Amino acid sequence: MPELPEVETIKSELLPHIIGRRFTGVIVYDAKPVRQPSVEEFRRKLVGQKITSLERRGKYLIFHLSSGDVLVTHLKMSGALLLNPKQTDRHARVIFHLDNGSQLVFTDRRRLGAVWLLENEQAVTGKLGPEPLTPKFTAETLAKRLQSHQAPIKAVLLDQAFLAGIGNMYADETLFAARIHPLRKANSLSPQEIRNLHKAIVDILRSAIDSKGASVDTYKRPDGQLGTAHFNFCVAHRGGKPCPVCGTAIQRLAIRNRGSCFCPNCQNP
DNA sequence: CTTGGGACCTGGCTGC
DNA sequence: TGCAGCCAGGTCCCAA
């Protein structure tokens, strides 16, 4: 599942291969992911445009084009952007042909992913919360934003309008690193716990980026390689297995219909 | 405003 | 071995 570290990895590995390239053709095998505009307009407007820059916002990728328009992608659960894959599988949804002969393949097994071609990205990314890996995201910022939430901290961390880019696995890892129980009410955290949580968010995300993301499910980098961040996971996707710190069995429960793994000993309620 | 539940979607897994 | 049904989770939509 591509979360911030996975999307950041895709961005940085795609970047050198696509900057300055021009779209020469766009083949839509599945219209479902093309959210805006119509498939016909999507193709017509895209062909001929040059990619001038590529940025990540939360879990979105934003391709800036020479026309001023932006191509925005979200990979959701099972999406990937593959560069010149050896074989195009049956899950290829859109193929972008570039002027150097390369193919950029948007593939997505579960068909939840989406692409937009827009005048600007605000309609899609406008409601996102702060970027956790920018200097503006401080423990003080976090503390202030937590005050207005009494939902479980795990649910709040998953809210993209609260903080952009964290998904289920990194929320679990972050709370474990900060020793905070996922059901704690967000506005009940002490100043020290908030400082710990802030540090955990930054550390966990940075280290996952260093490991090129986590390949627990279908996540692949543009060249088809896997990431290794999941080898460092302490609790995420480890329900029933021993806690690496104390050996207690990792517990699993549903919060907001999402599986949450935590150590009942290290993360006290 | 916040909160929580259902829907979307497909393939891997479970259990009969 | 076959197959129905469950489950995974990012985000949108809706109701309270």
Attribute tags:
alpha+beta; N-terminal domain of MutM-like DNA repair proteins; Helicase, Ruva Protein, domain 3; five-stranded mixed β-sheet; DNA-binding
Summarize the topology.
Layout: H1 4-18, E1 23-28, E2 34-36, H2 39-46, E3 51-57, E4 60-65, E5 70-74, E6 79-83, E7 92-98, E8 103-108, E9 114-118, H3 122-125, H4 139-146, H5 153-158, H6 168-177, H7 191-210, E10 251-255, E11 258-262
Parallel strand pairs: 2-9
Antiparallel strand pairs: 1-7, 3-4, 4-5, 5-9, 6-8, 7-8, 10-11
Helix pairs in contact: 1-7, 4-7, 6-7
The structure holds a DNA duplex (16 and 16 nucleotides).
Written account of the structure:
- The chain is an alpha+beta fold and 269 residues long.
- It folds into two domains: 122 residues, N-terminal domain of MutM-like DNA repair proteins (Alpha-Beta Barrel), CATH 3.20.190.10; 124 residues, Orthogonal Bundle (Helicase, Ruva Protein, domain 3), CATH 1.10.8.50.
- Helices cover 26% and strands 22% of the residues.
- The protein has seven helices and eleven strands.
- It has a five-stranded mixed sheet. Strands 1-7-8-6 form a four-stranded antiparallel sheet, with helices on one face. It has a two-stranded antiparallel sheet with strand order 10-11.
- A hairpin with a 4-residue loop joins strand 7 and strand 8.
- Helix 4 packs across helix 7.
- The relative contact order is 0.15.
- The model has no long low-confidence stretch (mean pLDDT 95).
- It binds a DNA duplex (16 and 16 nucleotides) through loops.
